[in-house]
């Protein structure tokens, strides 16, 4: 009897341990962990949120820029804050043309300055980028979600490393390959491109699409897949040679975090070429369709949760943890 009792209590203990472990595993991603700073710097997340909120209050366009910043950090050398480094000789990663128009780095610097005053040497710039993007999503009306933290800052920034960033001119195969190289699926490609539901693009990125695309019969002109009415609309916003005028990436629903970008992609109203390309291969067409049907909001997959999960997956690319890397004192400089 005593034996049976002790073996059943062993089983109960093992079960309790297993469920504790699965709880911990559920909350941690590799060596990252939700609430990593809860003891070492309890104000870390609220400080970043308040800096982002203030920045967004004085300039709402900074919120989409902060969301884009996570993509540009994570896709080059992983989410290690390398994009924040400023070099003297135009040879830092951030000087690469692929980062054209990147903004919000000063907001990250501002949050870092406050955090260094609160808890010196504790909160990495790489984590501040992730937290700021998460907050930017919520402040534009997107989902609120937990993000694991515990990244450290990388110690390398090379101009040429950013060459591999996805490009507006990439076809669907190239886009899928670049996401796959970072451990992300075709579904993630669609979900994360849907970040274009907020924010704008400079005409620079669509000049070739409007005026200089190689045509099947020879010569150059507009991308033939753009519906004529929409082409006229885009050309009226972006005259030939205009590089600076900005227009919403999500036609008719700028600044609102919703699935309208996916319906626009489905209906031929994608503004940049890489968004249009998402409707060129079955693997991504099916994903676009699954979120953009009439009844998707009721019966389809849940876009807001799926987007948040994809952000967390993107935030896990190539992270530096443990004793590797460093925690920078100033985000734009190595220690
Ligand atoms: C699939 C490959 C992608 C390409 C080729 C691409 C390209 C671009 C381009 C050309 C712009 C306009 C930049 C400007 O003129 O300032 C832009 C803006 C933006 N991108 Fe992407 N993007 C991609 C994926 C992503 C991902 C994965 C995210 C984040 C999850 C993202 C978030 C944004 C946001 C929020 C903006 C608006 C920025 C602003 O208004 O300042 N993009 N993207």
Automatic annotation (TrEMBL):
This is Peroxidase. Ca(2+) 2 binds at residues 197, 250, 258. Residues 1-30 form the signal peptide. The record marks 68 as: Transition state stabilizer. Its EC number is 1.11.1.7. Keywords: Calcium, Disulfide bond, Heme, Hydrogen peroxide, Iron, Metal-binding, Oxidoreductase, Peroxidase, Secreted, Signal. Gene3D superfamilies: 1.10.520.10, Peroxidase, domain 2. Ca(2+) 1 binds at residues 73, 76, 78, 80, 82, 93. It comes from the Eukaryota. It comes from Eragrostis curvula (weeping love grass). Binds 1 heme b (iron(II)-protoporphyrin IX) group per subunit. GO terms for cellular component: extracellular region.
């Amino acid at each position: 009897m005593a034996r049976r009792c002790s073996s059943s209590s062993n089983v109960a203990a093992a079960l309790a341990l297993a469920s504790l472990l699965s709880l911990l595993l559920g909350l941690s991603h590799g060596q990252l962990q939700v609430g990593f700073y809860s003891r070492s710097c309890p104000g870390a997340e609220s400080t970043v949120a308040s800096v982002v909120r203030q920045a967004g209050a004085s300039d709402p366009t900074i919120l989409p820029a902060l969301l884009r910043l996570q993509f540009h950090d994570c896709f080059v050398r992983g989410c290690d804050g390398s994009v924040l480094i400023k070099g003297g000789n135009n040879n830092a990663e951030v000087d690469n043309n692929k980062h054209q128009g990147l903004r919000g780095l000063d907001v990250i610097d501002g949050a870092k300055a406050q955090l260094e005053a609160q808890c010196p040497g504790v909160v990495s710039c790489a984590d501040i980028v992730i937290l700021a993007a998460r907050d930017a999503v919520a402040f534009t009306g997107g989902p609120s979600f937990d993000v694991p933290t515990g990244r450290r800052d990388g110690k390398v920034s090379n101009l040429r490393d950013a060459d591999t960033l996805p490009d507006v001119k990439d076809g669907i195969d190239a886009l899928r390959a670049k996401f796959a190289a970072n451990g992300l699926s075709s579904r993630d490609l669609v979900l994360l491109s849907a970040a274009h539901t907020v924010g704008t693009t400079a005409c620079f990125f669509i000049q070739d699409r409007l005026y200089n695309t190689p045509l099947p019969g020879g010569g150059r002109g507009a991308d033939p897949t753009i519906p004529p009415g929409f082409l006229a609309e885009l050309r009226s916003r972006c005259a030939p040679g205009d590089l600076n005028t900005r227009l919403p990436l999500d036609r008719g629903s700028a600044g609102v975090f919703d699935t309208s970008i996916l319906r626009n992609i489905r209906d031929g109203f994608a503004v940049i070429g890489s968004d249009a390309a998402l409707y060129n291969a079955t693997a991504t067409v099916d994903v676009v369709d699954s979120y953009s049907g009439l009844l998707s909001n009721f019966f389809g997959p849940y876009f807001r949760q799926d987007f948040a999960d994809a952000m967390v997956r993107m935030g896990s690319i190539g992270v530096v943890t443990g004793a590797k890397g460093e925690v920078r004192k100033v985000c734009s400089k190595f220690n």
